[in-house]
Delta-9 acyl-phospholipid desaturase
Amino acid sequence: MKKPAILWLNVFVFSITFLIAAIAVPYRAYTHGFDTTEIIAAIICFIYCGMSITAGYHRLWSHRTYQAHWSLRIIYALGGAFALQNSALHWSSDHRIHHKHVDKNHVDPYSAKMGFWHSHIGWMLRDHQPERYQDYSNVRDLQKDAIVMWQHKHYLLLTILMNFGVPILFGLWHGDMLNSLLLLGVLRLVLSHHTTFFINSLAHVWGKQTYTDKNTARDNGFLAFFTFGEGYHNYHHIFENDYRNGIRWWQFDPTKWFIKACQHLKLTSKLRVTPEDKIEKARLSMVLLRNQKKIAAHPNAELLLEKLQHEYDELIHKVNEFYALRKALIASKRDKLIADVENSDIMAQYQEIKRRLAEQQRSWQHMLENLA
């Protein structure tokens, strides 16, 4: 089978920038050094690129998980050009194909089942799917966004202005052009590239399948630290329309925090979240599946599986009851249908259902501990 044509420009850019970052930057650090201002400026530029991809390209444009003010969209568009990862239109088109056909080799642009190298960077070094560069039918909604189309039309110019202009301007201001080009230009770009690429590669092979095993995506808190919260990838692949990836308060997701903070500044709106009962039922279904596999070879497997399924069914019933009543309670408070909600019958029912759910959760946990 004939291999796809090599994209020599991509090979050149990725190779040269990596070699400079790996050789020239350490050599310059050893022989000349970088001062604190230069290092902080490089970190700020790295964060700007990363957040433009995660908050802009990914959660805003690819998945439409919230709406953003035009000023914020311009910031994302410039940051995306700075990150040098193609236009928002093209990036979003590729990403929607990835979600629609995840893990399907030769359809998913960066299928993890084609190996780590392919999903990380190899898919961009050969012309695997040339038709992608002509067909934007899956992003017609984005073609109505004037800022997206402005960036797409002037993408090459914007990448040159951002990737050379920012380091040059900083170098002129700070007084060391070479240091600026190496840190803010090359090293920042290489780190931005490969931390983003980790989401396509490592986040599909390393971590836990917390909510679904229907695809290779994994949840990994360590990766989340380097990818601005994108490491909770298993959650994202089952609930892609949620503006959050790390849904727990303790999970590192600065992209989520940034989007939420911008809501208070009236820069973002209509933030979409997944109902908690759907999240909990998805998590419990995976707990059930893992334990079913664990006890499949047990001598009393049939009896244990029956008990496990019964406990699971009871827990799901209680979860449904609890969240249905909680929704009714919230609606009552919002609509002021009950004069004194805290002393109402619905509150009493809510507290009783909450108690029963806690008892069922303890029973479920006890069952799992006995199976361990």
